[in-house]
Amino acid sequence: GIKEKDIEEKHQVTTFEMIEWLLRAISQNKKAVVKVTEFLVV
Prior knowledge:
Layout: H1 4-10, H2 15-28, H3 30-41
Helix pairs in contact: 2-3
């Protein structure tokens, strides 16, 4: 299996980290996220 240490060394971005980043971006700038979301949906 993949060890956490190996992931840290390779600097891989997990799905959880991406979601965490999105949540942080939403809290900082909701208007910008809405625009991005609309762009992705269309």
